[in-house]
Amino acid sequence: MYILLGCYGMFFAIGWLFGQFSSAYEFGAYFLQDHGMFLLIGRAVVAAFGVGTVYVVYKISMRCFDHFPIAVASAFSAAVLAPVVLGSYVVKADVPAGFFIAISLYVFLATEETQRLRPLIVASLLAGIAAGTKYYGVILIPVFIGAQFIHHYKFENAWKDVFLRSTLIIVIFIVGFFVVSPYNFLDPTWG
Amino acid sequence: MKNALGIGGTTVVFDPDSKVEFKAGLGSIPGATWYLLSRFVKPHFFGMPLTIFAILGLAWMIQLRRYSYLFILGAPILCYGLLAVMAAPYHLSPRHLIAIFPIFCTLVGPGIFFIVSKFRLTPKWSGPLFIAIMVGSVFQTSKIAVQRTQQIKPIKTFKPSLMGGKGPDIFIYDILKTGTFEYALR
Predict the structure, then answer these.
(1) CB distance from A76 to chain B under 8 Å?
(2) Which of A67, A96, B38, B183 is the most buried (most CB within 10 A)?
(3) Does the global pTM surpass 0.90?
(4) Rounded Cα–Cα distance for residues B173 and A80 (Å)
């Protein structure tokens, strides 16, 4: 929603610069008269997320399997999958949420190679953004915390580290969620 | 407590999207799980061929003993499935699963590779076979994507007033005669 707001804001700014809109009121009147351009912008944004998802699928596959044909086959299946194709030209939150979940997982995969906090923080933030886009993103929390228990055995992390990292995941997730959907927290009537 | 959990099924719920009537609570989980799985393999969801290759991809990861990667890719699917059958049983359309389809797609490539590697062919033949299986596995779903896109018919056209009537034509499309209107430039 806020991404669309930003895009519509840019549309207004460009229209204002070229003298099409003299004020926000005129812009609002234009929306009521002819909202075709707004739907087009929305569809372009969602389609861009769909294309981005295909690239992220390729990157996840490369990180997991490090084999070009496997990654291409995975990305190809995502590129032609009917629900993703059809979902990518409807202005809804499903495709952007799928993109944020996929990119969050991609970033999180880096924690399999390094125990630095940066990928964990970025992945948790992206998971929060995914959940703020659509609630599905919440599924990443048990996954990320569960992975910390695996890391306890794999990297011989102390239980204290497992606890601190799990707490960090939850805190950063909430921050990401709050940034993209603040009224979930501020407005008790928010559905 | 029994009523709150719905054990024994005290409240009958009707889902208008799936047109399924079920008893709310934990008792609905087995039926909802079966409903989810049976819908998932339908061509307009993930389809049977891609599902088989995704499962084979998971199996290959087990064979490679890449358990942590297996957990990171498999656990979100499991969590999503649990959430779907517990929080919104029988409420399912393809777009509701878009969030986990990319993860499944990640597993399709290794599944195809796993099958091709079983034939023990020379690179001269394994490459074409890999491509043939890849194209064949997505044929059904891509056909649906193309057909559904072609079914979108323009029902009205107009010039955008923003460009003083000089811009490109904008068509209003009726998506699949469902009454959902979409716009596109032409």
Answers:
(1) yes
(2) A96
(3) no
(4) 22
